[in-house]
Amino acid sequence: MATDSDCIVLEKINKFFGDKQVLNNISLKIPKGSIYGLLGPSGCGKTTTVKIMAGILSATSGRTWVLGGEMPDLSLMNHIGYLAQSDALYTSLNGVENLEFFGKIYGLAGTALKNRITEVLKLVNLKDDLSKPVFAYSGGMKRRLSLAIALLHNPQILILDEPTVGIDPLLRQSIWDELYALAKSGITILVTTHVMDEAEKCTLLSMMREGVILATGTPKEIVEGTNSKNLEESFIFYSKGGVENEG
Fold this sequence. Notes:
Elements: E1 6-17, E2 20-31, E3 35-39, H1 46-54, E4 61-66, E5 69-70, H2 74-77, E6 80-83, H3 95-105, H4 110-124, H5 139-151, E7 157-161, H6 169-184, E8 188-193, H7 196-199, E9 204-209, E10 212-217, H8 219-225, H9 231-239
Parallel strand pairs: 3-8, 3-9, 6-7, 7-8
Antiparallel strand pairs: 1-2, 1-4, 4-5, 9-10
Helix pairs in contact: 4-5
């Protein structure tokens, strides 16, 4: 059950698609204001897990709480910014038109919308390309626009599924700097990744494989708990059935 310090809680979540089980007894507690990482290879269940948190999918069994309320709940979903793996953009519109369209869906208008668009564009560095139709954008540019849209309505929770895929290293670092600032302001951020150096940037981390949570803790705790040199070694250790060292 959720507590006042928890932002998102998953309790014994199982998910089947037909006869295939993709999540097996997933339990997580994500504290408010943290940057929480889900680390694992493609197909391990990360995206399914975050879709359940966001209310996009329903679990086959188990319970999910977000901001103290049980999901799925449309009023709670309004407090979530969600960046999917696949960019959902209107490619015939330009960057500004996409931002204005989604901003209006979020209930923003007039000066408030204009100001918020200016703020999010500082993060993603797209100001010089906003007049271009989105079909002319590179993959990285589309990713940056999608991130800007996810931030538009000042969500209390930001769920980012592989947020920096296709983005150059310098911009990736600036995005992480902004994520730290957002978390410091009280926003809870959940990041899925298969990249070890990104996982190391998270304040808390869960490792996943084949629909199961292998380990949870700070990146440092996970590495030290397995007497490993780095997260990659720790992940291999748990994937082979290792058990965390005690004391």
